[in-house]
Amino acid sequence: MPKSQFIDPAQARAKGKITFGEIPVNAYDIPFENAMKHYSSEQLVRIYRDMQVIREFETMLNLIKTTGEYQGIAYNHPGPAHLSIGQEASAVGMAHALEVDDHIFGSHRSHGEILAKGLSAIHQLDDKSLMGIMERHFDGAALRIVEKTNKGDVKDLAIDFLLYGTLAEIFARETGFNKGLGGSMHAFFTPFGVYPNNAIVGGSGDIAVGAALYKKVNQKNGIVVANIGDASMGCGPVWEGISFAAMDQFRTLWEGAHQGGLPMIFNFMNNQYGMGGQTRGETMGYDLLARVGAGVNPEMMHSERIDGYDPLAVIDAFNRKKKVLADKKGPVLLDTLTYRFTGHSPSDASSYRTKEEVEAWQQVDSIRSFRTLLEKHKVSSAGKLDALDEKIRGLVKKAMELSINDEISPRMDITRQPELIGEMMFSNGSVDAMEDRAPDVLMPIEENPRVVALKNKERFALDKDGKPFSKVKTYQLRDGLFEAIIDRFYKDPTLVAYGEENRDWGGAFAVYRGLTESLPYHRLFNSPISEGAIVGTAIGYGMSGGRVIAEIMYCDFLGRSGDEVFNQLPKWQSMSGNIIRMPVVIRVSVGSKYGAQHSQDWTALTAHIPGLKVVFPATPYDAKGLMNAALQGTDPVIFFESQRIYDIGELFHKEGVPEGYYEIPIGEPDVKREGGDVTILSIGATLYTAVEAADILASDYDISAELIDARSLVPFNYAPVIESLKKTGRIVITGDASTRGSFMKEMAQTISELAFDEMDAPPVVVGSRNWIVPAHELEQHFFPQAAWIVDAIHEKILPLQGHTVTTDWSDEKILSRNRKGV
In what order do the strands lie in the sheet with 705-709? Predict the structure, then answer.
């Protein structure tokens, strides 16, 4: 879309061919005796130690799962344990090449990566830094436990801390790294550069890209590595994450220090199986995974297959690829060949592979092979390595004994504190800016052309005689959103916004018109049409410490980002033990006029998922105030907007929309019109349908309706609704979502429980039909109409004298429609 890039038809239509370069495969060939020149004996022994720590740690888990004991200590662990026994060299080689500021994201099989990166960080950090990290983590809860049994120095103490914190987390103990709320597949420890591991295959594929984006935008040190399995190459988040990471604009449109590729490595831990499916020769078609990089960009993602059974080959590859990233030529794809000796999980009997295959890989076991080299080249002796092995077994045994002791390592006491997890679902923070520095902008805010133009707009829609101003002169709902957003861009230097058509076009519905003039590319840009990656990268950006607004152009496209919206965004704050914050706003535009796949209201889907705040303003005043609140907070907010009312003026707040900053608390409904006979509670744009119905009730039947605009769905304060029912005794709940399974139904049920004694009739829901959304010319038969609300009141709540219904709200009709599923 940028005008600076002219698409020349002559060039685009010219004949030619695409050529590909070579992709190295297992190219490392430095003999060990030559490699020794680049490593001290201490380094080489540490590589062995780290691999052995992982092997013993996971052997312990495997024995617990399969035999119920380890070193004579009985324990039952019913939870998951996806083991990487056999893959240790891949994890340790990677971690050995990384610095503390380099961040890794993992998969369900990432115990080894946690330990490897943690051990590497412990080696690099000084004693004071290590003690500070351990003391600050949950006020030193885990530190106090391991201190009692540790007799070594600070680094020994930190190793105990790492093993204990990880294992306590796996065993769901409150003293674990994430209070036991993450568990085996989600454990992490950010001070060591270990960011969330992900139980969803490929789930880190786009989230990690968001973390790399955060480093790039905010000029932070370090790179980001997504450690994902070979089978994840078949998953949408990985493909979309790669597409996002490889965008040309990083090189062609971003400027200054921000120009150049993302500091991102997609590291495929290729153990050659996805559960029981063999990726090469069965479930995928790439032959060698590294080949995929050739199709992404002219640099072929600097793709390479490396021998993940040789830790020195892995170190060499990461060192070389880090130089590529330092030159701003990322992203990089590594196909790290490895093999797991155990099954997908301990219950997996490996019936899909032969005993001979497993034994063949065990014969070239990386730990055994590396130990042989250490002994052969006299880096260490068999006796010393045996002693080291015994010490490691002792460390793992000690970590296990501490972790399973219910007195030392209790689980959360939900019996005593039944709301404890509930209190961790939201952080409810209030933060002006995620960092204290000047934001990157192109002009003072007061010089922005749209800001200037809005000063001449009428901030209340009606003149002194009650007549509406023209649309050209009226301050609209989209203007309220714009003012809140541009204000935050000038307050919070970390804030970025992106999605489809966000720059130049001004957003598909003109909310962002005027932002392009104020913001450099690295703060406002167009993304690929990859809704999964739009949300997934926002998650990674937010959990890394930034604030982001990601836009989903149509509500119907939420399905394309389903895992990210439903499984990732809502969960990481609580799964982290409230360590992580998620200041992410997802703008979702609810359409109309465009038929079945562009006009649906899916508010109920998001409201159903614990961990998301959900809002749906319907007036300019509320839109600005709620967007301000969302951008001030530290929780994920799904911010619904209706395309029908982007151009509506303020009709309720008589003073008009203030020019200055204000917030409307998320979760508070608003009485838009007082009344005494019936309450109408509306969601979203249906507020204006409710107004029309209330006018009909007043003029034709002398019925006074109290109008309440929900404004928010989650959280929601029912107290004002109950107070209204104390006056009216009757309620209609209306919104544009299809009725079945809607949040309107949830409200009706909750109101029935809370205000049963206040009601003269059951709540009535007037939603859209349970059909596909038809063409614009037929929408009046699908979306709620004022006449429907009046008819529903007449038939279900309060007979209206002389009223003739135009729609059927009888019990027979409702039974019939439900029987037919419509």
Answer: 670-673, 705-709, 678-682, 731-738, 764-768
